[in-house]
Amino acid sequence: MIQRIAVIGAGAWGTALANAAARGGRDVTLWARDPATVASIAAKRESPRLPGVKLDDRVAATGALADVAHAEAVLLAVPAQHLRVAATALRPHLRAVPLVSCAKGIERGTHRFMTEVIAESVTQATSAQLSGPSFATDVARGLPTAVTLACTDEATAAALARALGSPTFRPYHTTDVRGVEIGGAAKNVLAIAAGIVQGRRLGASATAALTTRGFAELARFGSALGARSETLTGLSGLGDLILTCTSPQSRNFSLGIALGEGRAPQQGKLAEGAFTAGALVELAQQKGVEMPIATAVAAVLDEKLSVDAAIESLLTRPFRAEG
Q1: CA–CA distances in Å: residue 88 to residues 35, 107, 113, 315
Q2: What is the DSSP letter of 262?
Q3: Which residues are part of the catalytic machinery?
Q4: Cβ atoms 281, 305 nearer than 8 A
Q5: Under a CB-based contact definition with an 8 Å cutoff, are residues 198 and 147 in contact?
Q6: What does the pLDDT look like over 98-133, one tens digit per residue?
Q7: Pairing of strands 145-150, 126-131
Q8: CA distance 182 to 225
Q9: In what order do the strands lie in the sheet with 145-150?
Q10: Within 13 Å of residue 212, how many CA atoms lie on the same side as its CB?
């Protein structure tokens, strides 16, 4: 049984996962890069990234990577584009244990998914992916949440799910790693599009159409890369898409709202979809998959199209059969 868990990254999501694992009875080491965060957790049992949320007594904060060497599983809760650097720094301190990516994205330049980055960076580790419809504040406070945990080794996936699970945090396990990664990466980009629709006040009907057609893009892309249909329609695919396309708690949705309203995005709020959009579109083009909504989002983010021009490009596409 996995008892000792380390979480790398004490942002909102990493802190929430540390609390969730501790709530399930595990001993948790939470690594933070910022000494002030370590001090705050030690003194106040509270992270600056999640004010008002008390951390479980089983969570011990540290600023030394060597302190995670005893862990029987490690959660990498760092942004997708920083995952390779974090995993490489962690490599000398790890035994052959499961290393779980908790980021949702595709690495720019290499077009690698997160478990591929882990496999290249930490050869002794078994890579896994955690994804699904979840907000950090909900998880940290112990509100009911269900996610998906994927590993190509089913026994490892099941063991990780049991180690992280509790009555209010329920990981469902699968061996369809690629399907889980595709859902998490693509939905962030599509949530920006949904936010633009909201910001432009295009109406609830447009939001429903955008989300549905966005899921069709996600499904086409997933099918081309060998994902299972039940994964794409499950928690880490359709479930996460619905959540992030409808709630201002989603940083990607909020970014889209700002773009739609012509405002500058809020500083200090990382929206993974902004970094994933270009890589997603490039990879889709390599695979011959048409993703017009994702392509429009990438063009807006790269300032190649205005918001109005991007909307017009979608509304004037030829009529076709649904599919």
Answers
A1: 21, 15, 16, 45
A2: T
A3: 187
A4: no
A5: no
A6: 999 999 999 999 999 999 999 999 998 899 999 999
A7: antiparallel
A8: 9
A9: 59-62, 27-31, 4-8, 73-76, 98-101, 126-131, 145-150, 169-174
A10: 8
Q: In 78-124, where does DSSP find H-type helix? A: 83-90, 114-121
Distance between CA atoms of 57 and 59, rounded to whole angstroms?
5
Which of 91, 131, 114, 90 lies closest to 275 in space, CA to CA? 114
Task: Print burial letters for 108-130: b (CB count within 10 Å at least 16), e (below 16).
Answer: eeeebbbbbbbbebbeebbbbbb
Nearest CA to 102 out of 9, 198, 233 is that of 9
Low-confidence spans in the chain with pLDDT less than 50: none
> First-to-last CA distance in the chain?
44
Amino acid 283 reads: L
Cβ(154)–Cβ(92) below 8 Å:
no
At 291, give phi and psi (nearest 5°). Answer: -135, 75
- What pLDDT was estimated at residue 240? 97
pLDDT in tens, 222-280: 999 999 999 999 999 999 999 999 999 999 999 999 999 998 877 667 789 999 999 99
At 205, list the tokens. 């009907």
Amino acid at 186: A
Amino acid at 160: L
Q: In which residue are the tokens 């991007």 written?
A: 310
